[in-house]
Write a structure and sequence with these properties.
This protein has about 850 residues and is α/β, with parallel strands linked by helices. The protein folds into four domains: about 30-150, Chitobiase/beta-hexosaminidase domain 2-like (Chitobiase, domain 2, 2-Layer Sandwich); about 160-505, TIM Barrel (Alpha-Beta Barrel), CATH 3.20.20.80; about 550-570 and about 610-685, Alpha-Beta Complex (Alpha-d-glucuronidase, C-terminal Domain), CATH 3.90.1330; about 700-840, Jelly Rolls (Sandwich). Helices cover about 30% and strands about 20% of the residues. An eight-stranded parallel β-barrel has the order 7-10-11-12-13-14-15-16. The model is unreliable at about 1-15 (pLDDT under 50). The structure holds alpha-D-glucopyranuronic acid. Alpha-D-glucopyranuronic acid binds near residues 177, 178, 219, 220 and 381.
């Protein structure tokens, strides 16, 4: 231990941490626990080849025990008698004379036996041995020294990560589609980066949670990945990940034979095209002998595909399947995310949700045996609430993989805490009742229900170069939980979270309870303040998918429609009167969704078009539920910053502050969401909130009502994302403006929390100062570019709207509030309103 750490430890303070080690910190256990802990005397890893996961396991165990217990165990690669931790494959155990009990291990499974001075970790394969080692380390790191003996097998053979990293030929760094943690760890300037340290660290994280494969580039694939320099680079990536048992694959662009190969066609049945792909597969295999496979997005969102050549999607998938077949056990993951994004909303029966079943139902049985269909969990696109994709019930002769999203594209983009396992488990535990038999989604994607050899999980993760991997420390619980659930989808989501918390932040009960409570409240809260009753995430679907913009759902061909008008809302997806989507489910499920009475409230508007006054099972009307849910959800988010304060001093200051900043930000943005959605539907329906809250803000002073000097009033677009639909911005790009207001009779003398709502737009770092009676209460910068690590919108809108607090201010009527805003280029210090809040009030 370095002296500074010793000093901090002796003072009982947690050392600063940046999150790079995530849940693999191997933090020292308390001294008394360390002293009483006993582990065997040496580590025996039954493979001395440095690229072997068993060798890696030995090294990792050495490092872990050194950190956790301050013990420096010798590592050998040959079997010895006496006190030891032995790691190897079942075969290696047998060939070195170890007698193991009869085991029933499947691919990647392991057997772990911990008995006083003998620990044995036997993998069905080398990867399994590494997984068992991580399991043992996880126990040690959590101070768990119980003697156990058990076998553990993964639920499914495919447990992959998808990265949506771009090659970015011209930029210096590879950007990441829907990535919120900086540029790519794989690509820069159209090439594979030289230094692959982060890549191997990523593989380590993946291995520790049982993930065994990765697709490294965006599904919207750049053909240049297949040029000869990059093929060699792919070999380097695979080399960096192999010691961790992670196999690498890539996304392909269907048109590559034309764009890169200069052929006249990409027709999957054309002999020249077939030969072109055969050649590519041979070359890839030359660089990456254990190539995992290819991911293909075809005929979707303007991507080319076989339909362009009047061939079926199966023809397209089989083209790749046959090209890779001679080279090992690589697979084709063919995405079911195929749909037309130019459908016509005036057609009542048009429905994007129907697309996957329409396209794939008749193809069951037509795919080669090394093709697997990758299906997003819902039929639209990673929404806060969707029913399970009905396609899972239709592919009985084809392996399927469920596609989840760790990157929170529609769910707050890692700036909001949303713990996703409760959402995933709702999907995985859904019973499709195929042929009237129990058919849980998790049993379909494990391959069990339809007896498929190839099946499993893929999640879009999109880590970036930020030290925290996902841009947010708390968001990493989703990545951890993804691996744990892919291994065992019946695991308890709270138990997983508690393990993650102990490993990431320590075992203090307050830390565990605080993170558990906030995390378990987070998905319901987010659903409440974004989109309820199955209406989907009411975000800007033609923009960054972040802040509120419900009007973007309708009036375009993307098909994420709400069909909201002055009287009614929701998609009629019934068979009798609507798009027929509900009929895509097996009969028992179909009849549940076909009828309003049996459709659960949380999916009502997904399946039915109803008046705003429709009564829910709760007794509320649809519109009142909207209003109440938005107030309730935002109120929960307001408690997060306060809850987090309980762990101050218990976790290191660096991560404490970073999390605190995001939770405070989330609380403010949840109010933006609440007001935008409520104002929008109040405006549309003209139905008043029974509780009189919507459109009524007793403690606000609108910026447009202040006395302005150097500021001008603007209309904000979309209107509902500014209080009073207006805001102000400076009249120049260089000269400061001031906005002044006298506190009126609402404000009796007392202590107030002053909240300023402003817009932190992309393209500058404006500075602000707030004064009361000429005395400065504080300054701040519009620098979310730096602090949230991603750039929001260049305009004042629902993406950029945000709030800052100045708490505990003594004020009284007649006092003068003044804000000075100094523009910085395109960021013209925009302001929306000031709330002067009596203690405990939210407005
Ligand atoms: C969503 C997402 C896109 C992505 C697409 C896909 O539409 O917004 O960025 O390319 O899904 O999964 O292919």
């Amino acid at each position: 231990m370095r002296p500074v750490l010793l000093l901090l430890a002796s003072l009982g303070l947690a050392a600063a941490e940046n999150g790079i080690d995530a849940w693999l910190r191997y933090a020292a256990l308390p001294c008394d626990v360390r002293k009483s802990a006993s582990v065997p005397a040496r580590i025996v890893a039954l493979n001395g080849t440095q690229t072997s996961p068993v060798y890696t396991a030995g090294q990792e165990l050495h490092k872990g025990i050194q950190g956790i217990l301050h013990k420096d165990l010798p590592v050998t690669n040959t079997s010895v008698n006496g006190s030891s931790i032995t790691i190897g494959t079942v075969n290696a155990f047998a060939s070195t004379g170890h007698v193991l009990p009869e085991l029933d291990l499947t691919g990647d499974g392991f057997w772990l036996s911990i008995k006083n001075d003998s620990v044995q970790i036997a993998g069905q394969n080398e990867r399994g041995a590494l997984y068992g080692t991580f399991q043992y380390l996880s126990m040690l790191a959590q101070g768990n020294f119980t003697e156990v003996t058990y076998e553990s097998n993964p639920s499914a053979p495919i447990r992959w990560v998808n990265q949506w990293d771009n090659m970015d030929d011209t930029g210096t760094h590879g950007s990441i589609e829907r990535g919120y943690a900086g540029p790519s760890i794989f690509f820069a300037e159209g090439l594979i980066v030289e230094d692959l340290t982060r890549v191997s660290q990523y593989a380590r994280l993946m291995a520790s949670i049982g993930l065994n494969g990765i697709i490294v580039n965006n599904v919207n694939a750049n053909v240049n990945l297949l040029n000869s320099t990059n093929m060699a680079g792919l070999g380097r990536i695979a080399d960096a990940m192999r010691p961790w048992g992670v196999r690498m694959g890539i996304s392909l662009n269907f048109d590559s034979p034309r764009t890169l190969g200069k052929l006249t066609t990409a027709d999957p049945l054309d002999q020249g095209v077939i030969e072109w792909w055969d050649d590519i597969a041979t070359k890839l295999h030359g660089h990456v002998p254990d190539f995992a496979g290819v991911l293909v997005k075809a005929n979707s969102e303007s991507q080319p595909g076989p339909l362009t050549y009047n061939r079926t999607l199966a023809d397209g998938a089989n083209l790749f399947a046959r090209a890779i077949k001679p080279h090992g056990d690589a697979i084709v993951m063919f995405r079911a995310f195929v749909y037309d994004n130019t459908i016509n909303e005036t057609n009542w029966k048009a429905d994007r949700a129907n697309a996957a079943v329409d396209f794939f139902r008749d193809l069951d049985g037509k795919f080669d045996d090394n093709v697997i269909v990758q299906i997003k969990y819902g039929p639209i696109d990673f929404q806060v609430r969707e029913p399970v994709s009905p396609l899972f019930a239709h592919l009985e002769q084809t392996g399927t993989v469920i596609e989840l999203q760790v990157t929170q594209e529609y769910l707050g983009q890692q700036c909001h805490l949303v713990y996703l396992p409760p959402l995933w488990k709702t999907i995985l535990n859904f019973d499709m009742k195929v042929d009237g038999q129990p058919s849980l989604v998790r049993d379909i994607v494990s391959g069990e229900r339809f007896n498929q050899k190839l099946a499993g999980y893929a999640a879009v993760v999109n880590v970036g170069t930020d030290k925290s991997w996902l841009g947010s420390h708390l968001a990493m619980s989703n990545f951890y939980a993804y691996g744990r659930l892919a291994w065992n989808p019946t695991s308890d989501d709270v138990a997983i979270l508690e393990d993650w918390t102990r490993l990431t932040f320590g075992s203090d009960r307050t830390i565990i309870d605080t993170i558990t409570k906030m995390s378990m409240e987070s998905w319901p809260a987010h659903e409440n303040y974004t989109g309820n009753l199955g209406i989907q995430s009411l975000t800007d679907i033609t923009g960054p998918h972040y802040g509120p913009k419900p009007q973007s759902q309708d009036g375009n061909g993307w098909g994420q429609w709400t069909r909201a008008d002055a009287k009614s809302i929701g998609m009629d997806r019934t068979v009798w009167n609507g798009t027929g989507y509900s009929g895509q489910y097996p009969p028992e499920v179909a009849s549940m969704f076909e009828n309003i009475e049996s459709t659960p409230d949380d999916l009502l508007l997904w399946f039915h078009h109803v008046p705003y006054t429709q009564q829910l099972k709760s007794g509320k009307t649809v519109i009142q539920h909207f209003y109440d849910a938005h107030y309730d959800g935002a109120a929960v988010a307001q408690t997060f910053p306060e809850q987090w304060k309980a762990v101050k001093g218990l976790v290191d200051a660096e991560r404490y502050d970073e999390v605190a900043f995001r939770l405070e930000y989330q609380a403010g943005h949840a109010l933006v969401w609440r007001d935008a959605i409520n104002d929008f539907y109040f405006n549309m329906s003209s139905i008043k909130d029974e509780q009189g809250r919507v459109g009524n803000h007793p403690w606000r002073i609108e910026a447009e009502d202040m006395t302005l000097d150097g500021y001008t009033i603007i209309r904000v677009d979309p209107f509902e994302t500014a209080s009073g639909f207006h805001a102000i911005r400076t009249t120049s790009n260089t000269t400061a403006g001031t906005a002044t207001a006298k506190l009126d009779e609402r404000f009796e003398a007392g202590t107030y929390d002053i909240a300023v709502n402003y817009f932190d737009v992309k393209g500058g770092r404006a500075s602000y100062e707030l004064f009361l009676n000429g005395k400065s209460l504080g300054t701040w910068l519009g620098n979310h570019e730096d602090k949230l690590g991603y750039t929001a919108s260049p305009y004042p809108d629902g993406h950029s709207a945000t709030r800052i607090y100045f708490r505990g201010v003594e004020a009284a009527k007649g006092d003068v509030l003044k804000i000075v805003g100094q523009p910085d280029g395109g960021e013209q210090a925009p302001l929306d309103y000031v709330s002067v809040l009596p203690s405990g009030t939210i407005d």
